[in-house]
Design brief:
Layout lengths: L3 H6 L3 H13 L10 H18 L19 H11 L1
Length: 84
């Protein structure tokens, strides 16, 4: 069996997006419902992928250091105003 690190290293961006959508909707792209174990495994894989490959600075996301980004209320307001 492959290690989780090997799986993450071989995960394409397309598969990452499919996992993200499955977690958000609770269903695979085929329409099949995720089991609890599948959901937990998908969340773990998603977080590991984001830590390794994404430099996301959004609120409540995991950054490259493995820490959760927690923006203040003022920072969130500024970001929201910039986006609109």
């Amino acid at each position: 069996m492959e290690s989780i690190e090997t799986l993450i290293d071989n995960l394409s961006h397309e598969h990452y997006l499919n996992l993200k959508q499955a977690i958000e909707t609770g269903r695979w792209h085929t329409g099949d419902k995720l089991t609890l174990i599948q959901r937990q495994s998908a969340i773990q894989a998603l977080l590991l992928y984001e830590v390794k490959y994404c430099d996301n600075q959004d609120h409540l996301t995991v950054n490259k250091e493995g820490h959760i980004n927690m923006l203040s209320k003022d920072e969130l307001k500024k970001k929201f105003q910039q986006d609109n």
